Each structure stands twice: as structure tokens, then as C-alpha cells.
Amino acid sequence: MDYxxxxxxxxxxxxxxxxxxxxxxxxGFERVTTTVTLRGxxxxxxxxxxxxxxxxxxxxxxxxxxxxxxxYTIDSFSETLAEMNxxxxxxxxxxxxxxxxxxxxxAALDLALRQADRSIAEVFERDPDPVQFVVSTRLDEPPSxxxxxxLQEAYPDVVLKLDPTADWTADLIDDxxxxxxxxxxxxxxxxxxADVHQPANPRLxxxxxxxxxxxxxxxxxxSDGTESLLDANTGRLxxxxxxKDVSSLSTLPFDPAWINVKPSRIGTIEALCGxxxxxxxxxISMYGGGQFELGVGRPQIQTLAALFYPDGPNDVxxxxxxxxxxxxxPPQSPLQVELPESGFTPP
Length: 347
Prior knowledge:
Layout: H1 4-7, E1 10-13, E2 15-24, E3 30-40, E4 43-49, H2 54-62, E5 70-73, H3 74-82, H4 96-116, H5 120-124, E6 135-137, H6 146-154, E7 160-162, H7 170-179, E8 182-186, H8 202-211, E9 216-218, H9 227-231, E10 237-239, E11 258-261, H10 263-266, H11 269-281, E12 285-288, H12 297-308
Parallel strand pairs: 6-7, 7-8, 8-9, 9-10, 10-11, 11-12
Antiparallel strand pairs: 1-5, 2-3, 3-4
Helix pairs in contact: 3-4
């Protein structure tokens, strides 16, 4: 994913608009995101700000937006954003700066491609493939297998990404293992800045590693009690939260075997290209990750998965799976991603 293929694309911006989306989710919270729509030469480009704190979205909507009108390249637009404060107040947590940065950068890429009448597949000279996806879901409170049962009733071949917690019992773990549907276990051990953070738990880690011998283990936390367990399973470890650019790959506790690629967590097109290229050149397996996108952010991450890592256990399932109720006839994997004739997102 060579950044030079898009860095010099020209983009003309006449103005932009912001609009909010809100929806309840299967994880029990109301999701708020902001769609960024850049306008230029009679065309639009869109991106989605997946900042998690509603206060940050409301503050942006109530503020006087910064002036962005002008002639740019993708690279010079990124440099302009780097010098701006996109948060009139806050943010509530530091990672949100990258989330909002990605919304503007992805919108600019979408607009630049449309103005050039080129598609993202054409620019990167990649043919899309059907996308294998997993369904990411949290269990009920208290934890039970009920939601998994409902998913399997609606979609017998569903493949899951689950978030274990300390209150998972041995019986629940055994029941989940018997479903033979769990492909990724996200331990949330790297989320020091978020409410979902789960500290290192040697007992739980050992139970999970034993019960799910083939599952990918995402974002474990290291401690004296977990390090030896993880060291014996490095080929199964995956990293999400620590991945911000290429340099972050060298700071991981183990050489990475798997990476969860989240463009919004990375923040810029240049850094995203760098991470994907590094992984492709160093035999690091990748899969796409989502952040409860409500709008154009979802098809964007599906497009990237179709072009660069279609066979991974992509956490980019259609957004209907994030609804509180399990859909009756949900889309099934692999997902046929419809790429636009020009731009980054569907028209």
C-alpha cells in the first residue's frame, strides 16, 4: 500500500458539512459519530469520526468550524490538519485526536479520487476479493451463552470475536468452546484509557488458551503471571490498541504475528499505508477492525479489507450485527464488497 500512489493526488475543497448519527448498540451504549462531508467541484467526499465520547461530537457541532477551503494534495492537506486543533474543547481521551483526523483524511481521499475520476482499487492496482468476516459481540450481563445461541440460530456458520472478562466461568468457557465458532478472543488488556480495559488475569488466560487452542488472542496484558503463557503462544497473538504507525510495531512485547488494522486508530493515510506495507513485506497477517461505525466508515474499512486482507478474520461485519437485537436473516461471510467506480466510499 504505497503512500506515493495517493500523496500527490490533488483535491479542491470549497467547504464542508458535519452531521451526527446516533444508534443504540449490542454492547449496551448509545453510539454517536460525526460524518464529515467535504465539497469541491460539485462533488463530495465523506469520512466518519468515530470518537467515542458524545460530548466531543456535540462540542464540534456547536463550534465554528475551521476554514479548510483551498487547493491541496492529499499530503499537503494532511500537513494542514496536523497544524490544526480539530477539537474546540477536549478531547475526553487522547486517541480521539486520531479518530477525528482519520475522518477528515478519509473524506479528502474520497473527494480527491472522485475529482480525478479514479477508484481506490485503480490507484493502488488491487483487485477486490470477497471479505471473510467475524461477528464481534459482547455477552449478556451476567455473561451467558444466550446471545451466541441466538446468533447461531440466525446464522449457523457464524464465526465470532468475543471479549472475555474476569466473570466468565469455567462452565461458560466450556460451553463457548463447544460451539466451535470462536476465532478471536479480545482480552482488552491494552485499553488503559477506556472503560473496557481488562487487567492481566493468569487464571483466565490459561483457561482460554487451553479451551480455544486455535483462537487468535488479541491485546493481552503482560504480567509476571501471563508472560510465560503468552510467550508459548506468540503465533496466536494479535495487536490492536498499540498500533498507531510502523514504529509502534517495534515496541510490542513480542514480534507480531497478527495485526488488527484500524485506520481510525492509526489516524492518517500515510501511517496506514506504512503499517499495511510493512506487514505485507514482513509476513505479518492482518485483519480489519471496526469501531461501531454508523455511516461511511463501515464500507471504507470493508473496502480496505477487500483490497488488502480479504482472507483475515475481519472484524468488519455489516453494521446490522451491532444492533441490540440479533438480525433474523443477517448477511453471511464472505461479504461481496461493492466498490465505487470513483472514490473511496459508495456513492
